[in-house]
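We modelled the chain as a single entity of 282 amino acids. Its sequence is:
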Amino acid sequence: MLLENFEYDLPNELIAQEPLYGRSDSRLLTVTREGRLTDKHVRDLPGLLEPGDLLVFNDTRVFKARLSAVKAGSGGRVEIVVERLLGPSRCLAMIRSSNLVRAGSEFLTSSGYRLQVQSRTSDFYQLIALEGAVFDKILSADGSLPLPPYIRRQPNSQDYDRYQTVFAAESGAVAAPTAGLHFDGGLMDRLETAGVNIGFLTLHVGSGTFQPVRSKGGSRSTRRWFESLIGQGVMEVGWSVWERPLCERWRRPPKMVSCYRLKVRLTYIFIPGTGFGQWTFC
């Protein structure tokens, strides 16, 4: 499998910059076992599933991870995206700057909070908040929603609602689980009425989901991408189902994940050389 196999033309004008009015009005392409393609909408999903099927949703919540700051001294602008908190006053972050960022560099947020770079590992920097500040307060005061890079505008008040799933509960994601954004309360009710089981897991999606695959080679680069995506994510399946199809609504699977709940163990097995895998009951 080569990276060039995934190349296709996607004109910028076809990338929506605003969500549809109705979440479940989004289009859905269905594929039969015989390979027949049909255009439908996400709202049609209850009629495509069978009673007893299981839908598993990621209930992570996107937090205000993006910070605009300036360099102490020079006043040069930097953009910080907090990947995850390592403690009340310490975090792991990506930093965009016109010049090289070194250990010891300090930044000032718009409210005057002072941050200092401690070290760098690969694409990430360890930052500490100085003068007794904590990141919960810093992000609450100065943070903004980290919209995906293909959304070429600043977040607005609508985005704080629409760039969250309706079942978002556990704060910690830098990116929303995209497929889940198409489900609204009415659709969830209709799925339950149709006898579809609904379960939840928590996977805090990191900024790695937006990073390009840098290698031209096959599955090795894809595997690294999956591993960087899962990061320190915590997963827990919240429903018990026996010998029923698992309808995955989690956009991108990791290399291998075991999910425990009651007497059920679900394992995602990565298939070497393909970049894909399958869920199995153990």
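As a brief sanity check on the tokenised model: The chain has a mean pLDDT of 79. The first helix runs from residue 135 to 142.
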